[in-house]
Amino acid sequence: MRRACLLALLVALGAAGPAGAAVTQPAQRATGPGGKASRYGGVRVTAGGSGAGAWFVYQPSAPTPASAPLVVVTHGYYEFSGTGQDDALARHAAHEGNVVIYPRWQTDVAIPCPGPFDIEPCMTSEVAGIKGALAYLHAKRSRVQPQLDRTSYFGFSFGGIITANLANRYRQLGVPRPRAIWLDDPHDGGLTGLDEPALDDALSGIPAATKVVCHSGAEGVTSEPGKADGSCNAVFAKLGRIPARNKSLVMTFPDAHGTPALSSRHGVCAGPGGGFVVDAYDYGFCWRSFDALRSCALTGRDCASALGDTPQNRYIGTWSDGTPIVGLKIQAAAPIRARAVPPRAPAPAPAPRAAGRTT
Fold it and tell me: CA–CA separation, 159 vs 130, rounded Å?
């Protein structure tokens, strides 16, 4: 009885260090992928367009570069205004020296598209937002000019399905070729089937040289009844044209070692908006991985921090008491499953940043 009460007390108090201080999440690293360091002191956000063709543009500033690589960030379902779901990630990407387009492709439930029953109106909206934002940037040379040949895409949830389809059809839709694609728990809602029927039947239109990361949380879509082969498992099954060295299927796990606990539910990479928060999974995993993936695709650097089952890619950070966060599970092929849970591995030595093979 006394032992049970003691255990309950420890759980209620949370993990604590030797001096009784609560164990906390690691802070954002100072430098490197996902880090704070940036040569740009600000981000200028502009809204434009209207209805389901609306858009936001994030331009790095202080100083303002003449041109910058382009990043397209696509939110998930149920964002009808603003940029709440992925604003933090978009701002980080802009601070890193990218010009970011955030298409706001939805205005209400089932508008412009009724989810997976007919995704095409939302595809049309997404393209309109991208092209409208590009027209705005091109209209004045004082605005940061997007380097269209250095374009990366990020998509969350239903926006991940839109992003995969967009990258697959980039030629016919007239949008920039994808150099890197990062998907966060892509999902069409499961209303017409459990294996993402709104996803294009084939994804062979995505160039083989494209670098791809797809993330599923252990508590996310694939943990729901009947959906084990949905989300990234459905996407990766259609990426056979892309060689293993250019793609990684990754999974995060819940970690309650410290306070606040880290969740791997749907929305691991989403920030404030819709009940999401920015935590160590954002800067230690999502931002770090997306930064490194873009770097790998565009310069050949930081590949070990974005692709492959490497120590640098598995490592997310260390709790304040020195305990590593549960690492990523990483595979080059589907399916990925929540069992077994990866070990807690200490911080690895930094990987070399020298340029390497990019195809």
Answer: 13
